[in-house]
Design brief:
With about 270 residues, the chain is mainly α. Helix 3 packs across helix 4 and helix 5 crosses helix 7. The two termini are about 40 Å apart. The protein contains nine helices and no strands. It folds into two domains: about 110 residues, Substrate Binding Domain Of Dnak, Chain:A, Domain 2 (Up-down Bundle); about 110 residues.
Length: about 270
């Protein structure tokens, strides 16, 4: 019985925001390049992959440069300031909740802190992760808190209700400004062209990788690189594409013919 290897999953790249798209392309290019560097040049399947990678690199370079230009704007400064304020506010809320659990003399406050701790654990917000993922989690956290009477009472008991209201407002504003930046800048058209050029290169690269895994899988171990790419695809689906928050519409479908933590928010 022949067992077919696991292949790289399909991903609707047309639905990604620019930051997630660039981050995904960067991750794919860098990891495939690292994989091919581990094998001698005479291995045919790896040579095929190297050729596809070489073809994709110019499109990646143009995409990286186009994305960098979209980040140079006053809107970016606003987003950065909001992100910094929100990070400090979230950490203050977290520290308040942690501190309240040590006040054993106040049973009601300790109980409220335990309830809120479970909410924070559920979303596992990391202020150092990419901005799209971070603020998607925070927005969902805030929405769940607002919908629960018990959590609302816990916020009041802990004295963090005002902080959570501001955190909700920041989450909404950040997502709106990211969308605004993607659509209104003069560089937006250049970015769309760069994406349209990158799309077929990405698909061709993945097709070569999958085909090589099927045909030559017994010669070179493709399971490691395929698992890496699939893990990243699953992460993107869960944290960046599972829910479209208010004010964060996906990028429009790129034009069918040509006309990736750059630094910035990352994935």
């Amino acid at each position: 019985m022949i067992t077919l290897p696991t292949l790289v999953q399909d991903l609707n790249i047309a639905r990604m925001t620019n930051s997630v798209y660039v981050g995904t392309m960067k991750f794919t290019i860098e990891n495939i390049e690292a994989f091919t560097n581990n094998f001698p040049s005479e291995i045919p399947d790896v040579e095929m992959l190297r050729a596809a990678l070489a073809s994709a690199k110019p499109a990646w370079k143009a995409l990286d440069e186009a994305y960098a230009k979209t980040l140079r704007s006053a809107i970016t400064d606003d987003i950065t300031a909001l992100d910094a304020e929100g990070d400090q506010l979230y950490m203050a809320v977290k520290q308040t909740v942690e501190g309240a659990q040590k006040m054993t003399f106040d049973a009601a406050r300790v109980q409220a802190a335990k309830l809120y701790t479970e909410l924070l654990k559920k979303y596992k917000v990391d202020t150092k992760e990419n901005m799209i993922s971070e603020w998607s989690k925070i927005q969902q956290l805030c929405e769940e808190a607002a919908a629960s009477e018990a959590i609302g009472q816990a916020e009041t008991a802990l004295g963090i209700a005002t902080a959570m209201d501001r955190l909700t407002a920041i989450a909404t504003e950040i997502r709106q400004k990211i969308t605004e930046r993607s659509g209104e800048l003069p560089e937006a058209q250049q970015m769309k062209k760069a994406r349209a050029a990158m799309d077929p290169e990405y698909r061709a690269l993945i097709q070569v990788l999958n085909a090589s895994a099927i045909i030559y899988g017994q010669v070179s171990d493709f399971s490691g690189i395929i698992k890496k790419l699939n893990d990243n695809i699953n992460y993107v689906r869960v944290h960046a594409m599972s829910k479209t928050a208010a004010g964060d519409t996906p990028e429009p479908e790129p034009e069918p013919t040509p006309e990736p933590e750059p630094s910035g928010e990352g994935l």
